[in-house]
Design goal:
The chain is α/β, with parallel strands linked by helices. The strands form 2 sheets. A 5-stranded parallel sheet has the order 6-7-8-3-9, with helices on both faces. Strands 2-1-4-5 form a 4-stranded antiparallel sheet, covered by helices on one side.
Amino acid sequence: MAGEPLNRSARSDGSPLRSASRPLITAAPHPLPRRRQIQLLTALAREAGWRHLALLSVLSTISSLLDIAGLGLAVTLLLGSGPTSAEAGPLLANLPVAGSLGLLVGLILLRGLTQAQVAIRREQLRSSFTDRLRQQLLLQVFAASSAQLDRLGRGELLALLMADINRTALSLDQAVRMGQALLAMGIYLASVVLVGRTTAWPLLLALLATTAAALMQRSSSWGLGRIQSRLNAALQRTVGDGLHGLKALRAAAAEDWLLDRFAKETAEGRWLLRERVRRRAGYNAWRDTLVVAVAGLWMLFQGEALTADVLTTTLVLAYRASASVSAVVQARRLCLGNLPGYEALCQRREQLIPSDVETSDSTIAATMVPLLSKRRWSGLKWHRTRRTTDLASTPSDAVALHPNRLIAITGPSGSGKTSLIDRLCGLLNEEDSHWEVSCDGECWQLFGLDGARQMHQLIAYAPQNAVLFEASLRDNLLLGDDQPQQTIESWLQRLGLEHLLQRPGGLDAPLALAQDPFSGGEIHRLGLLRAWLRNKAVEVLDEPTAFLDATAAEQVRAVIRERAQERLILISTHDADLLQQADQVIVLKAAGG
């Protein structure tokens, strides 16, 4: 199925955009087998919790029964005491009109309260389920290895968190609605038989046939849902690229290129919306026409066999049953249309589960590595587990470190300095790393992902390209830790960053980062300060004097010399002054050299 062409539009300056001649849709993917759809729905219900779903079903059933009782009582009151009034039971037959009205009001009130409980419970289920899915996915991302994260694109991960998890919750919500509508439909159809008795069988069979036809009709909802999943990821990539690379786009006058990408993707979104509205409207028109025709034929053939109250009650119940059919079909389409969001979520979560090859955590001793003090630890060794265990091999394969020293790694660009310190810090190829930590005569052996997570607690790392978050300056420096205000202010003054304290709100003012409010040198020094404030026994700094002028670079060198007296400082650098001050220099060769 193809989308409609996208007309040329104009930019704000009046010049036309490059034409996005057609949406990205070429053909709808083949629908997933029904068995797979049922498997996904079952897994979705199990993950949401059967107990909550069962409670919703009970409340929905009670609401439908109260609705039927109210309808029957209302028809009896409107038509007076006909032949069926006595058949309704001795209690209703002997009730005065005022008593019947009171009972009707009570039934309506009770039904309204029950429906309110259903709506509240359903929203609680949806919101708590959404929050739980997001937290679980974030925890999996944080716990995943670098190799696993390399398989996930930024846009795809954002689409999962922001769009596909919402669609997963919507699919669950619509599945609940579909179940409730099916229950209501069954109750209404059973009531049609109870009220109309033998004369209602033709109407009942016709309504059942209509229901079967509506449910069996293929609407390609699954295919549209698959397209929506791809579109979500594409839009997240485009918007993320536009915000992250805004300066580069402006510098290259390449705004049209990004707008063209966005236009193609939003054109596909408009096509999806139009297609869904068209199919829903077509079904509603078909359903209404068919139900009216069925009811008319039934009345025509039954003739005088129907009394007024039986006819009225049966038609009202039949109408409610047909409305429930519509609710079932609509909920089913929305459920299947959004179910690919859950499919995408399941696939990505499976990718984040460590494989047998990537996991070596079973070799870690049960004793947790203590937080090392500056005086107790005597050695830290890292080496690759798969290529060598010989600590005398090349520097890129193994490193041995000792406390209270300044160790520098140098070499030409591309020789692997950053990769080496990333691996030593447990941030790259964790599954292929082995650490030995010596402390008070004991030696802890650490392997794999769990070992890497323990190393994160022992090492303070300042990467070359520091990252700021859209939070306060205090939060950016401490990341949830706690330090006295005076300590932070004195550090900022020492690094020549005291002017940041003059910003409105000082340390607690949130940073708006879309337009890069800080220079590269400021961001770099803030990244170094973030590591220093952690106050760990091992500090790893990647190009600590990069992006800095002579004055700022000398300030950083002075801090490094001072801190190297009481802890291990490992740096990668081209700075000749730092290399001259180092106690040990590790030289890496150029790639392929």
